[in-house]
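Supplementary notes for students who missed Thursday's class. We covered one full example, reproduced here. Read the sequence, then the structure, then the short commentary at the end.
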Amino acid sequence: MTVECDLCGREFASERGVKVHQTATHDAEKAYTDEEKLRELYWGESLSMGQVAERLDTDKDRVAYWMGVHGVETRRAYSEQNYASLRVEEGYTLWREYYDGEYNRVPVHRLLAVAEYGYDAVVGKDVHHKNGIRFDNRPSNIEPVDPSEHRRIHGEERADEQRELISQLREDGRLEGGVS
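Structure (token representation):
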């Protein structure tokens, strides 16, 4: 199957082939071929290629083609940029940043603890959520504690939870006797 150019009748193997042909052959006087206009919209107004295409009544491929013809440098793709974002992992809110090809993460509650207590008070310590809710990062709910103390706190909580579960199972008749 071949596709014909509406403007000159020349046949091509694909729609893409027609588009490239029309861009290179028939578009010489169109606004999107003007290097200065492309630079102004893309860099001056910080529009995306899609926005430039919309403004100039064409498609993104033609804008990309003519920017390439004129040597207009493009912004890096999002995946190549350095950026930071908020994420939630295992109930904790984290800042994750991508820099120089690597991801780095820091829990928000650690950042807040440094802001609240100072770096020296937090370094080498765990930051504990007093009410046990991992995403409750109010300054009044977080405190730096020694790692051994943090393990002890959570060990007691887990033991309490296990005792409560055993008690509930006994009440429901699903567990008999045993050590409590």
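Commentary. The two ends are 79 Å apart (CA to CA). The mean pLDDT is 86. If anything here is unclear, bring it to office hours.
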